[in-house]
Amino acid sequence: YYRGATLLLSNCNNRPPVPGTDGPPAVCSPPTPSQRCMERLRSSRAKLLDRYRQAGERVYGPAAGALLVQEVMELEWQGLQESPPDPDELAVLEEIQQELILQEQSVIEEYERSLQFDEECLNAMLDGLDASDEVICPVCRKNRLTVRSNLVFCQCGLYIRTQVSCGMTEEKLRSLLENTVTEHSHRCFHNPEFTVTSGMEEEASLLMSCPVSLNLINCDIWLLAAGLGGTCQSWCLPFLTL
């Protein structure tokens, strides 16, 4: 993985016995400081990445990579101080240190780009919510309700002609639904359910009912968006009280 990885080749001399002798093969020689250093760096690679990711939440930028790599490399420098300095070993360690710094810096840059992308997506979503006047269909609870003059319809099949004298808008529809649900919540802690039914003169209506209305007294059933004439204020009327 690293340049200079040829130093990691086995130091075991597995040559066969010299012909004409009965002696055993040569015994493996002890690893050199350079080999110990390289092996230690390889074995600590996963730990280094974990420590770097954890520290990435507190430290950002090129200084963070240098800081963590320095912490790991200091252990190797201390080990080398106990033995006579070897210019080749020092050169290898410096090369490894630079490669680690560059790689960890790329990890941090990728992490920062990911954070920036997530933040931009979140801001765009919040901006869309702030600027949106959409009303979610209370029947399917997924699609947007579309209001065109006196028509209210949804992809789920809801289609209601309001027939109100002052016209219907998404803002009025949202206010009507919110006020009706809020008024119900003052008397009952259960969530109401909405269905499409036939009302007066066979006009489709949006019916809000409580799932416990058959068991509890004073829990209302409301008829919404019925094909009723009159003013906007009469557009939402209590249909039946049990």
UniProtKB/TrEMBL annotation:
Keyword field: Metal-binding, Zinc, Zinc-finger
Annotated stretches, region: Disordered: 13-35
Domain RPA-interacting protein central: 87-125
GO biological process, one term: protein import into nucleus
Any coiled-coil regions, as ranges: none
Family annotation (Pfam families): RPA_interact_C, RPA_interact_M
Protein's UniProt keywords contain Metal-binding: yes
A cellular component term, taken from the record's GO annotations: PML body
Any one Gene Ontology molecular-function term assigned to this protein's record: zinc ion binding
InterPro entries: RIP (IPR028156), RPA_interact_C_dom (IPR028159), RPA_interact_central (IPR028155)
Domain RPA-interacting protein C-terminal positions: 136-212
Protein name per UniProt: RPA interacting protein
Organism: Calidris pygmaea (Spoon-billed sandpiper)
